[in-house]
Structure formats: structure tokens, C-alpha cells
């Protein structure tokens, strides 16, 4: 396996603090009316379609290594296994809840915020190698999200959903970056600099958007539902610890272990709210989804550093 990265504890805490402060900027500027819903919608579109794919492409611009390629394959297989196991496990864990909440709770357990928050944190802590492996996880995420995730609401398994997933800009960026990595294709300096500069906008944009989303929620309603805490406990603590334990028992270590655990430690995916909104007529509950996204995102500022420090000690 790839050798573990020794990261000073203060670096982890400082980086997560920076992300939290960026989130608070989004929260404050939205409360003051500086950022409007239209602006945030534009920011989100730019991030998903431009800056995040650019970050992924630059992460693949590195010297070819058989070990890295092998580990990328392992990340793909592990990511698939994690999504399958949470998809099946969530079916039993939330049986006692009403159908509208059960669907949201299952989505929260299966899908982490591996894009909006995952990439900034992986980049901050592990650098481009972290983004490289994280982008492989996101490929699996998107395939499952737009197929199994949609099927949770509609009950329909449509081949067109797979085509939609494969057209996701993040997956297309991997399709561009992988040949660059495998064949050591050079990127002209002005082009790489442009990709790198725009890609570096992903972190501040992502956290400002998350902060803005949190600013639009009513706090009294957010903290009133016990199931929100149950889902948050599973998402932020139980799942990353289980992932860590099973991977260690299977002999995995190094950067692969660290990236997988860090990605699993992310809060509920913000796209959960989007999917619940899209399929409201099929039992979606966007308000309930927003509560879980809010609570898990806030608490993740404490749990993410803890999980990273723990996996650092084990890796």
C-alpha cells in the first residue's frame, strides 16, 4: 500500500478551522443579504461544472506510478463495497420510521458529502494524492446516487439514470485525468496554471455554499427531532470507525485507508436535499433532509478532526 502520510495534529486542526471559518463567512453574508439565493445557485453550478472538475484533472497530473494505479483500483472496489453495504444495511436500520423519513435516513447513511466537503478536506490534509483517490470514490458515489438513490424514491431502476450519472462533470474529469496520469501526458504550463488556479477556488466556494445553506434553516425546528441525531451518529462516527476497523483487519493501510476513512467521516451529502426536493411527490421530505444536513455538518467540524487523528494513528 502507499506509505502513510505523517500529518502534524496542529495542521489537521488548523485546516478544519479554516474550513469552518469559510463556512461562517457564507453563513454571515447570507444572513446579511450579501449572498442571495441566485448567487449561491450560480456558485453551486460553477463549482460542480467548472472548479471541481478542474481540481480533479490537476490531481491526476502527476508522475505515473503502478502503485498509485493499483491503489486507485482498490479505492474503486472498496468504495463500491461501502456503498453496497450501506445500501443494504440502511434497509434494516430505519424500518420503524415513516416512509418519507426512512428514505431520507437511508440516503444520509449511504451518501456522504464527499464532493463539497470531501475534496476541500482531502486537498487540505493529503494534497493532490488525496484528491486523486477521492475522485475515484466520487465516481462510485455518483453512479449509486443517480441510480440507487433515485430508486429509493421512485422505485424505478432506469438505465437512463446510469447514463446521467456517467455524464456528471466529476466523472468526466476523471475520464480526462486518467489518461493524463497513465500515459504521463504533459499539460502546457499556461493551461495547467489556469486549471490549478480555477480548481483552487473549489475549497472556499464549497464551504461558503454550505454556510449559506445552513443560514436558511430555522434553528428551533432543526434540533427538535431525535432521529436526526441517530442518523448523524451513524454518519459521522459509526460508519468511519467500522470502515477503519474492517479495512485494518483486511490489511489495508497508508493513504488508501486514510482517504477512505476521511471520506466516510464526511457529513450528510447536501445533494440529499436536492434529491428530496426533486422527488417530493414520491415521498421526499426536503425540510427533514435539511435538518440532518445542518446538524451533521456542524458536528462534523468536531468529528472530522477526531477521525483523521484516529486513522493517522492506525495507518
Topology:
Layout: H1 9-31, H2 37-59, H3 66-93, H4 99-110, H5 118-126, H6 128-154, H7 159-166, H8 169-182, H9 189-199, H10 202-215, H11 219-222, H12 226-249, H13 254-264, H14 271-278, H15 286-314
Describe the structure.
- The chain is mainly alpha-helical and 315 residues long.
- The protein has a single domain, classed as Na+/H+ antiporter like fold, CATH 1.20.1530.
- It has 15 helices and no strands.
- α1 runs antiparallel to α15.
- The chain is globular.
- The N and C termini lie close together (10 Å).
- The N terminus is likely disordered.
List keywords for this structure.
315 residues, mainly alpha, 15 helices, 0% strand
Structure summarized in a few sentences:
Helix content is 78%, strand content 0%.
How is the biggest beta sheet arranged?
Answer: none
Averaging pLDDT over every residue, what do you get? 85
The first-to-last residue Cα distance is 10 Å
CATH architect. name: Up-down Bundle
Roughly how many Å is the radius of gyration?
19 Å
**CATH topology (fold) name:** Na+/H+ antiporter like fold
How many domains, as an integer? 1
* Uncertain segments: 1-5
CATH class: Mainly Alpha
Q: Which percent range describes the beta-strand content? A: under 5%
The count of DSSP E runs of length 2 or more, i.e. the number of strands, is 0
Helix content: over 70%
Q: What would the principal axes of the Cα set say about the shape? A: globular
Number of helices: 15
Amino acid at each position: 500500500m502507499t506509505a502513510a502520510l505523517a500529518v502534524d495534529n496542529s495542521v489537521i486542526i488548523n485546516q478544519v478551522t479554516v474550513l469552518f471559518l469559510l463556512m461562517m463567512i457564507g453563513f454571515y453574508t447570507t444572513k446579511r443579504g450579501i449572498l442571495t439565493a441566485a448567487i449561491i445557485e450560480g456558485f453551486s453550478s460553477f463549482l460542480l461544472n467548472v472548479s471541481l472538475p478542474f481540481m480533479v484533472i490537476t490531481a491526476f497530473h502527476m508522475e505515473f506510478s503502478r502503485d498509485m494505479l493499483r491503489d486507485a483500483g482498490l479505492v474503486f472496489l472498496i468504495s463500491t463495497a461501502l456503498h453496497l453495504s450501506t445500501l443494504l444495511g440502511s434497509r434494516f436500520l430505519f424500518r420503524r420510521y415513516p416512509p418519507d423519513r426512512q428514505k431520507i435516513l437511508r440516503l444520509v447513511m449511504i451518501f456522504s458529502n464527499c464532493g463539497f466537503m470531501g475534496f476541500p478536506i482531502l486537498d487540505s490534509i493529503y494534497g493532490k494524492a488525496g484528491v486523486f483517490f477521492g475522485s475515484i470514490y466520487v465516481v462510485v458515489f455518483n453512479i449509486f446516487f443517480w441510480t440507487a438513490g433515485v430508486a429509493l424514491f421512485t422505485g424505478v431502476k432506469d438505465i437512463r439514470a446510469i447514463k446521467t450519472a456517467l455524464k456528471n462533470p466529476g466523472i468526466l474529469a476523471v475520464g480526462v485525468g486518467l489518461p493524463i496520469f497513465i500515459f504521463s501526458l504533459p499539460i502546457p504550463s499556461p493551461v495547467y496554471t489556469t486549471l490549478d488556479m480555477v480548481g483552487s477556488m473549489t475549497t472556499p466556494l464549497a464551504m461558503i455554499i454550505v454556510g449559506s445553506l445552513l443560514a436558511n434553516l430555522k434553528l428551533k425546528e432543526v434540533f427538535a427531532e431525535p432521529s436526526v441525531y441517530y442518523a448523524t451518529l451513524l454518519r459521522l462516527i459509526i460508519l468511519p470507525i467500522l470502515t477503519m476497523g474492517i479495512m485494518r483487519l483486511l490489511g489495508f493501510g497508508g493513504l488508501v485507508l486514510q482517504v477512505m476513512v476521511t471520506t466516510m467521516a464526511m457529513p450528510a451529502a447536501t445533494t440529499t436535499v436536492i434529491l428530496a426536493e426533486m422527488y417530493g411527490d414520491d415521498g421526499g421530505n426536503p425540510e427533514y433532509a435539511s435538518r440532518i444536513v445542518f446538524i451533521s455538518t456542524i458536528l462534523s467540524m468536531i468529528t472530522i478532526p477526531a477521525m483523521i487523528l484516529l486513522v493517522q494513528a492506525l495507518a
